[in-house]
Structures are given as structure tokens and as C-alpha cells.
């Protein structure tokens, strides 16, 4: 696959492998996961998958596309990214910025909106992390409840064709990696 890059657009590969975080994860992830298992606190499979995807993110040996400058005809190799939201700071930031820009440019100006923040106690957070289908079910109930309440307040009904829209984001980590704290507190 070949991608043509417009003239004047510079590209420099983001080198996650040169960051301190990458070095720490690369050196200690296996020991961390083994230690969790030894303590009887094995983590959900998706957590290990996030770490493994992060270690492959932006590495040419894990896949790339060739991009050619239309001006100078110079070619660049553009490494594939993990496109994960949970652990990789590069991909999470990019996806967050893209999602936010889409909402601001295409969704929010066209309709009135309101922000709701829903927070769960630690034991439920652990359940939702280990069994995401439960989070989906709970979010479904929350969305139906909010939608019905908003329509009722406006004097409208679903059966008459009135609709609401919702955008949901799940945040698993805080600034202090609260997910790990939850694991320690729950004994999971």
C-alpha cells in the first residue's frame, strides 16, 4: 500500500522505544504480571494485551506503510500504531484529540447538550474491568433512564418519535493509576 503525502508535510516517526515509560514497561512487565499471579491477583487478559500492544506500537518491525513526498519524492516508512486507548500515551492522546474535535466540530454545536459523570465504587470498577459486558449492560440502563427522564421533562415521548443521543467514554485510569489501587484494595 502506498500513501502520497502532500508537499511540505513533514513526518518524523514517534519513537516510543526511546521513552522512559517504554523502557520501564519493556524491562518489568513480565515480572509484574508473574508477581501478580504468584500473589493470587492475576489481572484480566485485556490488561496484558494493552501492555503488549504498547510495546509493538510505532515499531517498524511490527508493520508499516511507505509514504512518498509529492514534492521531493523522498519516501518515509510510517509504522503502524496500536490504536489503543488504555495504556499507550501516544495513541490515547491522538484518539482523544480526534474524538474531541469531531464532537466539537460536528455534534455539539448542532444540538443542546448536557454532561453527566457517572462514577462507580471500586468493587464495581473491578467487575466491569474483568467482565466488560456488565459495563455495557449498566450503561444501557443509565442511557435509557436518562433519555426517558429528559424526554419526559420536555413533554415528549419515545413512541411519538422523540429521540435523544448520548456519547459515553469509559475512563479506567486516573492520574495515580487508580486501577492498580483498586486491585490492591479488592485483593483481586
Describe this structure in words.
- The chain contains six helices and three strands.
- It starts with a strand and ends with a helix.
- Strand 2 and strand 3 form a beta hairpin.
- The chain folds into two domains: 94 residues, no CATH class; 83 residues, no CATH class.
- It is mainly alpha-helical and 188 residues long.
- The C terminus is likely disordered.
Measured between the Cα atoms of the first and last residue, the distance is 45 Å
Strand order of the largest sheet: 1-2-3
Tally the helices: what do you get?
6
The major sheet is characterized as: 3 strands, mixed
Percentage of residues in strands: 5-15%
SSE succession: EHHEEHHHH
SSE arrangement:
Layout: E1 2-5, H1 20-38, H2 45-56, E2 64-69, E3 75-79, H3 89-107, H4 122-130, H5 132-153, H6 178-186
Parallel strand pairs: 1-2
Antiparallel strand pairs: 2-3
Key traits:
188 residues; 2 domains; 3-stranded mixed β-sheet; 6 helices
Give a short synopsis of this structure:
This protein has 188 residues and is mainly α. It has 2 domains: 1-94, no CATH class; 106-188, no CATH class. It is built from 6 helices and 3 strands, in the order E-H-H-E-E-H-H-H-H.
